[in-house]
Specification:
The protein is built from 21 helices and eight strands. With 557 residues, it is an alpha/beta fold. The N and C termini lie close together (7 Å).
């Protein structure tokens, strides 16, 4: 049948997706969870502020190093097992941290928590995308919502539980993650192993690429300032756990809002480079305000909350730019980038504590502002890479990275054809059957076209399929069409920069081969059909010069 695909809510997802999304919320809570209890831990365990800041340092530095091996692990045991291993480690080490009676024990257990966190964040987006039935775009929206909710709620939960005892937030995370672990183990289906195993040294080798290295070093400078504020600002505030929780909840809400909504708006209007320059400069001014008025609590609190605006913008824009400028596989680029930037974030709070002991409370924030200026200087050396990234994200891809068609199966012959959007989801066979039926009625050839694309959300990247899987999906559709006695050719569309480009390129290919119809599945099935939401659907309908056939659940052609 022919018609318009029904709008699909991003929140109409299977229980498995919600199980992982819930785990994402709890995981992202860990970013600001300990802020409200830092002074209490320092007081009750007779620890110096620099010792307490090691809760951040051990967690983030170990997360950074573990990022180098997460792809190696997941490519060998699969995404679900990696996810479960990460969740289990978080449960165990969060509970042990809560039961510890020494600052050294808590710091050590936070390090183990960091290993679990690295395994979890490396695979959570991939599992959500693979399990989603409400649409590819919907899965990303759900992931971003979980990220924002976790960042915003973490400090509040830490403050509420921390008012009872500093141990409360640790036990709270262990309990919530236990629920997420059970739900994930029961509801999430195992994912197939990738065709190619990732090497241990691939993330480090990826840093040989100048664009990726420059962006990663810029992120290191930004994270130094970020975690100086997050890790040390609670001490000079002199507030109780509840008050600190409210302050950092306000901070987290701004991080979430400007990460999801503000950053894309600014990027569309200013471009990647100008957005990053302006954002880092504004963040440097806010940190400078903190440095000057550290002893004035109202100014300090206001500046910390406002800093959430620039942290949210930078998180989104920098991550998207990194994935665009890098020539390596996106999960590898993400691991390399995460390794470098988390090193900066991990060392900054401990350095802040030591600087205060040696000088005064203002110096760490002056240093953080200076490091942000250094980050801007480093960023200026990547003008060409940023310009290329802007062209790619605007759909003006450079020739070297232009989308390309790879032929799979028989070489195409001259003539008209029916294009099939060959998806890895459950509707692929039905789409192929409908296309074959149309080809039989009109004496034409089926052209099986599969668009390969990655998902990027927040700081996570999910390759929805590798090259071998994309070719296998096309071959499967070709076999199904051949079994019906209909001639067929197959193509994989690679190097697609964005969802809008998918719709436009499908329409352009249809025009080039003289197709009489484009056959796609409905968004409720996921896969490429799910890409036909938002910008992708608009571009397909705008550029197509032939009939678009949408295969619904009740299609019978």
């Amino acid at each position: 049948m022919t018609g318009t695909a029904p709008a699909t809510s991003p929140f109409r997802q299977p229980k498995a997706v919600y199980a992982v999304a819930f785990a994402c919320v709890v995981s992202f809570m860990g970013i600001g969870l300990v802020d409200p209890i830092l002074p209490a831990i320092s007081s009750e365990l007779d620890a110096t502020p620099s010792q307490v800041t090691l809760l951040f340092t051990s967690y983030l530095v170990v997360t950074a190093v573990a990022m180098l091996v997460t792809n190696w692990v997941s490519s060998r045991i699969g995404a679900k097992k990696t996810l479960i291993a990460g969740l289990a480690l978080i449960v165990v080490f969060a509970a042990l941290a809560g039961a510890s009676d020494s600052i050294g024990g808590i710091v050590g257990f936070r390090a183990g928590w960091g290993v679990g966190n690295a395994l979890f964040i490396a695979t959570s987006l991939a599992v959500i995308v693979a399990s989603a039935s409400g649409g590819f775009v919907g899965a990303i929206v759900l992931y971003e919502s979980a990220l924002g909710l976790g960042i915003a709620v973490g400090p509040l939960l830490g403050g509420v539980l921390g008012e009872i005892s500093w141990r409360g937030p640790f036990f709270g995370v262990a309990a919530l993650m236990s629920i997420a672990l059970i739900a994930t183990a029961v509801l999430v289906e195992p994912q197939p192993l990738p065709a190619r195993r990732t090497g241990l040294l691939e993330p480090l080798r990826a840093l040989r690429h100048r664009g990726l290295l420059v962006m990663s070093l810029t992120a290191l400078c930004y994270n130094w300032a970020f975690f100086t504020v997050l890790g040390y600002a609670p001490f000079p505030m002199g507030l109780g756990a509840i008050e600190l929780g409210l302050v950092f909840t306000g901070w987290g809400l701004l991080v979430a809002i400007f990460s999801v909504a503000g950053a894309p708006w600014l990027q569309r209007r200013l471009g990647i480079a100008r957005t990053l320059y302006a954002n880092l400069a504004c963040f440097a001014v806010v940190v400078l305000v903190i440095a000057i008025w550290t002893d004035h609590v109202p100014v300090l609190v206001t500046a910390v909350v406002v800093a959430g605006v620039f942290i949210g913008i930078n998180n989104t824009v920098t991550t998207q730019a990194v994935m665009t400028v890098s020539p390596v596989d996106r999960p590898v680029a993400s691991a390399a980038y995460g390794f470098v930037r988390f090193i900066g974030g991990g060392l900054a709070p401990f350095a802040a504590g030591k600087l205060v002991e040696a000088t005064n409370v203002h110096v760490p924030f002056y240093l953080a502002a200076g490091v942000l200026v250094l980050g801007i200087a480093i960023l200026t050396t990547a003008r060409d890479a940023l310009a290329a990234a802007e062209r790619v994200q605007a759909g003006e891809t450079a020739p070297a990275a232009a989308p390309r068609l790879e032929t799979v199966g028989p070489e195409p012959s001259e003539g008209d054809g029916v294009i099939v959007a060959a998806v890895a989801g459950t509707d692929g066979a039905e789409v192929a059957r409908v296309a074959a039926r149309l080809a039989t009625l009109n004496g034409r050839t089926v052209d099986v076209l599969h668009a390969q694309e990655s998902a990027v959300a927040g700081d996570s990247v999910a390759e929805t399929e590798d090259d071998a899987a994309a070719r296998a999906a096309v071959r499967q559709r070709l076999d199904e069409v051949a079994a019906l006695g209909v001639p067929a050719v197959g193509h994989v569309l690679r190097g697609v920069a964005g969802h809008g480009s998918v719709g436009r390129l499908i329409a352009e290919h249809a025009g080039q081969v003289g197709a009489r119809a484009i056959v796609i599945g409905t968004p409720s099935h996921g896969g490429l059909a799910a890409l036909m939401e938002a910008s992708a659907s608009q571009e397909l309908w705008r550029h197509a010069r032939c009939t678009i056939v949408i295969v619904n659940d009740d299609s019978r052609v």
